[in-house]
Amino acid sequence: MEQKNHVYNNVLDLVGNTPLVKLNRITSQFKGDFYAKVEAFNPGQSSKDRIALYIIEQAEKKGILSPGDTIIETTSGNTGFSIAMVSIIKGYECVLAVSSKSSPDKIDMLKTMGAKVYVCPAHVSADDPRSYYEVAKRLHSEMKGSVYINQYFNQLNIDAHYYSTGPEIWKQTEGQITHLVACSGTGGTISGTAKYLKAQNPNIKVIGVDAFGSVIKKYHATREFDEKEIYPYRIEGLGKNLIPAATDFDVIDDFVKVTDEESAHTARELARTEGIFAGYTSGAAMQAIKQLSEAGTFGENDKVVIIFPDHGARYMSKVYSDKWMSDQGFFDSVNGAAAESIQYIK
Ligand code: PMP
Prior knowledge:
It is a single chain. By secondary structure, the chain is of the alpha/beta class. The chain has two domains: about 10-45 and about 165-325, 3-Layer(aba) Sandwich (Rossmann fold), CATH 3.40.50.1100; about 45-150, Rossmann fold (3-Layer(aba) Sandwich), CATH 3.40.50. The protein contains eleven helices and twelve strands. It has helices spanning about 50-60, 80-90, 105-110, 130-140, 155-165, 165-170, 190-200, 215-220, 260-275, 280-295, 320-325; strands at about 5, 5-10, 20-25, 35-40, 70-75, 95-100, 115-120, 145-150, 180-185, 205-210, 255-260, 305-310. The strands form three sheets. A six-stranded mixed beta sheet has the order 3-4-12-9-10-11. Helix 1 crosses helix 5.
C-alpha cells in the first residue's frame, strides 16, 4: 500500500487489513475466547472488496483487461458493489446480473456505483436461461472485450483470501487461533482463509455455516449433490443450490446449518450486545457459534475467529425492519418486536 502523509491514493488502498474485535457479552456464557473479523471495515463494507480487487488486478497482470473493457458478474449484491467500486477507480464498465432475492437497497446501491444491473428470478434452477448465472454467461458471450469474474467457479476467489484474510488472522491472533467459523456462499472466504491457516497449523478446526435449503453441508459429508435438499430460504449470500468450484471442501472440517429466523434474531442481538451492526450472514455465523457452543465444541482455552462478512446498513428493509420480521412470522412470544423501545410523544 502506497501511502504518503497518511493520505490514501484512492479508496482501493483501504481494502483489507480489517480489525479483529473481541466479543465480550454475546459469548459470556460460552467456553473460549471469540473474535470477530469485521469485514464491514473494508471501503465497500464487505469482504468482497478483497476478491474484486485481487481478481481484477490478476486479469490486468495477465493482460486480459485493458481500460474501457467491461467486467461482468453474478452477485447477491456485495461482490457487485465491490466490482463497481474497483471499476470506477480503474476505468472499466461494470455489468451485474443479480438475484431478485437481493434487497432493493443493494440493487439501488449498485446503480449508484455506476453499474448496469439485470435482476433475475431467484427461485429457478441454476441452468435455467433466466438464472443469474445463465444471464451473465449470455451477456459475456454477446459483449466483445468483456471479462466474466465468475466468482463461484474462479480459483482466484480462494487465492484472494489465501493471500489476505488468512495471513491477517494469523498475525492478529499471533498464531493462537484454534477455530475458524465462516459462512460459505461461493466458499472463497472460508476455503482461502482455511488453506492459509492450516498451512501454518494443521490442527486449526474450520467450520462452515450453511443454510437449511442449501446443498453444501450434505455435499461436504457425502460428496453427493442432493437436489432434495434445495428449497427457498431468506438469508442472502450463504449456502447454494449448486456445488461451487470456489469451495475447497477438503480444508473444511464440518458444516453447521442455521435457520433464517434464529440468524435474524442473532444479528439483532449482536447490535444490542456488542454494538456491532453487521449483516444477516454475520447473524448466521454468530448463530452457528451458539449452536456449536451448546454442542460442547469449544474448550476454555480455545480462540475462535468468526468472519462477519458485511455491514448491517444493507439490511434496513430486512432483518432490521420490524415490519419485515413480523411479515416473516419471526416475532413470537419469545422474541417480541423491538417496537416497545420506541416511544411516540404526541
Ligand atoms: N455473506 C454475505 C453477505 C455474502 O454476500 C457472501 C458472498 N456470497 C458470503 C457471506 C459468503 O462468502 P463466500 O462467497 O466467500 O463464501
